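Archive entry: two folds, one per protein. Generate the first.
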Amino acid sequence: MQGSPEVQQAVRARLRRIEGQVRGLQRMVDDDAYCIDILTQVSAVTRALQSVAIGLLDQHLDHCVREAISSGGPEADAKIAEASAAIARLVKS
């Protein structure tokens, strides 16, 4: 992952929070919590992961793809195709 150390640190912190949310989900299941409450938390975790994914995609476009386009050639085409495929995966999820 390219980008500033601050961005990487922020992503790691966000993923640790999400990890905590998932552990909370496990506890809810272990404690036989109400299904709708569990589903609500699953939805929150899903949104949090999607937010991380969008941020990572934004970083990728801003750094890797922009750099490849500036250089031109087949690498630029490959980076654009790679980004397009990543967007398609995000849209499907």
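Generate the second and append.
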Amino acid sequence: MGMGVGLPVGGGIGGLVLLLLFSALTGTNPLDLISSSSAPQDQTVGTTGLRDKDPQAEFISVVLADTEETWREIFRKRGEAYVPPVLVLFDGATQSACGVGRSEVGPFYCPTDRKVYLDLSFFRELDQRFGAPGDFAQAYVVAHEVGHHVQNMLGISEKVTAARSNADDRQANAWSMRLELQADCYAGVWGHYAAQRGLLEPGDAEEGLNAAAAIGDDRLQRMARGHVIPESFTHGSSADRVRWLRRGLDNGTIEACDTFSSRTN
């Protein structure tokens, strides 16, 4: 999800949690940990290829379709056309234009092929390991990845990539963090419109905010080593992630999500 965190993958608390902790500790973008050396094991592409009678997969496809409705309308008002991303559900590993994606990496968006990649096992980790249960917590994850697609369409991702290539590690981490916080805010923009359409139930927004807090860099670093290294943040503190998701929920506009001009703490 760009959600982030050397620690070896595997062992007691599970490979996914270890990788997320590793990303938070080192400032490594989880996509940088995707290796092209392993062959994919299973791939399900697009909303037409969802697993039969899998309620979680069907729920995710519904969320994705609703994000399309939101962003199509927002782009229409800007005089632009919105082309939605393709959803890829996979089990274990899958090939993307950004390399081989594994379940240890968690959900991610590949700007090259404009696809959102999700391993459904991540949502069990979100509930059981990170203490962020609920449908809207899962919807927030999907909407965050779609937020990266919106950034790609608006040319923001390309500018950040260029800026990171000319920056030192600390500056590069700061650029990545602002990109991730903006994706959180864009997830909130979708939630704002979903609420207007009567799709949110009481407590749904709190589930999303709880999920954002659960995966803050500071929380993940404390889990891994008991202290925090702010300059290594690549996704933002729990407070920042909650603040930007809430800002999107409250305002519902692209303009409210300018993390690059605002202070993030």
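Annotation attached to the second fold: Residues 1-50 have pLDDT under 50 and may be disordered. The CA atoms of residues 3 and 12 lie 21 Å apart.
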